[in-house]
Amino acid sequence: MSICKVRNVRIRTKPEPAAPTLPLRHGLSHAGDGYDPVPLAGTGHKAGLMSDDQAHKLAGLSSSSTAITQIFQSSGPAKPNHPDDDEFEDGVDGFLARWQPVLWTPSADAAERGAAFVTPTAQWRLEGSKRPSWIQIQPPADMSSGFFTKPLSETNPLKKFLLLSLSLDHNQDPFGADFLAFGWSQSLGVGPIAPIDGDNIVFVQVVRTGIDQRTAFLGVNEGGGSTLSPGLVTNEPIRFLGLLKDETTYRFYLSPDGVTWRYGDSLMSSIAPDRVAVGLINTTVDNDLFGFDFFRVYPDATV
To answer: What is the rounded distance in angstroms from the CA atom of residue 182 to the CA atom of residue 97?
Structure first.
């Protein structure tokens, strides 16, 4: 089950250079960690290593607006002050109390680096004490997708910035096309991945495309069709994923450290999102660990 559907998928094209071609399987998409600039189509911008002020200019935004570097000062991320923030500080039980598993159930075994396993019942291994203030998740290596999700306190805000702090296994060989998706969706009572509405969602999906490389895409599912941006390739670890909603325009950003940011791409959508969702697929024999440090919400942000 995936967020991005193969049928009716519209991928924007650009003149040169050609975007990397990746299979659209399991819905979201595949990405990794890399730093080679890739021109993106449709917006008139180019992705690449840039300062915050450059990101504003390329995105057509005023550099006097609230900047990412105002959110992330040199001393580190600001402490949470929004009811939807989650610091993952209370272990596995606290995580499961707030986030709903979709298409998987918790395993009795704890996540452990180097473990190799497949579970026919789609059990994910969790661990929340070895790395304080982190939740570590280890899906089985069987290509089955799963999600964790929670509702947000505000439906369809005009301007809001969602930020996910994470760690992805890096420089692992052999590697598989593991992927992570960070989405903002409408809620659905009944459906294949309910309460996530996979037909009305905006998401960033990150796919591992090399031993130390990942490729990130911005996608929209709406009105029975899907749009996927060209891929942004990076060889740097992805430590932060940011998804900005500016009325009906969505933009995404990547950072290895919370100081240097790369602007990815923008897409339009008129959905009314009211929940956050994270999707994972593990294809590596020694099952990769996906770590999450915090999820934060910045209302009225104009990054």
So the answer is: 20
pTM score, whole prediction: 0.78
* pLDDT tens digits, 265-301: 999 999 999 999 999 988 777 788 899 999 999 887 7
Residue 50's SS3 state is strand
Please state, in angstroms and rounded to a whole number, the distance separating the CA atoms of residues 249 and 247.
6
Tokens standing for 254? 């990547």
Q: Which residues of the chain have pLDDT under 50?
A: 1-2, 5-66, 73-76
pLDDT tens digits, one per residue of 227-245? 999 999 998 889 999 999 9
- For domain 24-72+87-105+139-299, give the CATH superfamily: Exo-inulinase; domain 1 (2.60.120.560)
Task: Say how many Å lie between the first and final Cα of the chain, rounded.
Answer: 33
Question: Which amino acid is residue 294, in one-letter code?
Answer: F
The token duo for 143 is 């290509």
Report whether the peptide linkage leading into residue 174 is cis, meaning its omega lies within 30 degrees of zero: yes
Residues with Cβ within 8 Å of residue 97, at least 6 apart in sequence: none
* Cis amide leading into 101 (omega within 30): no
Tracing tokens 């918790």 back to the chain, one arrives at 106
pLDDT value at residue 177:
74
Listed by start position, the domains of the chain span 24-72+87-105+139-299
Cα 206 to Cα 4: distance, rounded to the nearest angstrom: 13
State the residue for tokens 């650009």. 14
Rounded distance, CA 279 to CA 27, Å? 10
CB atoms within 10 A of CB 261: 24
Q: What is the pLDDT of residue 203?
A: 97
Query: How many residues does the structure list for the chain?
Result: 303
| Per-residue pLDDT at 292 | 96
Phi/psi region, residue 48 (left: phi>0; alpha: psi -120 to 50; beta: rest), is: left
